[in-house]
């Protein structure tokens, strides 16, 4: 479903990205509208798929997940069966926060969040026992400098 997004829709989306737990009254006040039109626009944006699921962002380190690895994967396998097995292996592992198929020398990059290096090794051993990969390089993030899910809707 295609939806036309105007300036008020963008303001509403900015507010929801900032804090989706805000009341409808607060969002309406912040965007200069009233509650009913804002609610109708949010409903329209949900139905069109512009707004996906709502969730809570947890602090990984305070929950003991102190290690973030970026895993670069090269493979010589490109058949549908291998890709299906690889995708299933990734989807079955909650440690994988993101997975991207890339253009260039690296085929895939994963963002993997674990408690420590030992937990990463267990993840790695499990992954390579399920799917064959040509080369795996793990890069430990020393410091998260910026992380956001916000899209640049303003300006």
From TrEMBL:
One of its GO terms (biological process) is response to amino acid. The keyword Transcription regulation applies. Pfam families: AsnC_trans_reg, HTH_AsnC-type. GO terms for molecular function: sequence-specific DNA binding. One of its GO terms (cellular component) is cytosol. SUPFAM superfamilies: Dimeric alpha+beta barrel, Winged helix' DNA-binding domain. Residues 5-66 form the HTH asnC-type domain. This is Lrp/AsnC family transcriptional regulator. It comes from Antarcticimicrobium sediminis.
């Amino acid at each position: 479903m295609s939806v036309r997004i105007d300036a008020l829709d963008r303001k509403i989306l900015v507010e929801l990205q900032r804090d989706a737990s805000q009341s409808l009254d607060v969002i309406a006040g912040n965007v200069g509208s009233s509650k009913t039109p804002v609610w109708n626009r949010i409903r329209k944006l949900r139905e069109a798929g512009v707004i996906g699921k709502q969730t809570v962002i947890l602090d990984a380190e305070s929950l003991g997940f102190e290690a973030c690895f970026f895993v670069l994967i090269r493979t010589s396998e490109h058949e549908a069966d291998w890709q299906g097995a690889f995708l299933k292996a990734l989807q079955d592992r909650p440690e994988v926060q993101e997975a991207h198929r890339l253009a260039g020398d690296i085929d895939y990059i994963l963002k993997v969040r674990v408690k420590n290096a030992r937990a990463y090794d267990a993840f790695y051993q499990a992954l390579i026992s399920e799917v064959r990969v040509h080369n795996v390089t793990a890069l430990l993030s020393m410091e998260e400098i910026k992380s956001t899910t916000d899209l640049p809707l303003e300006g």
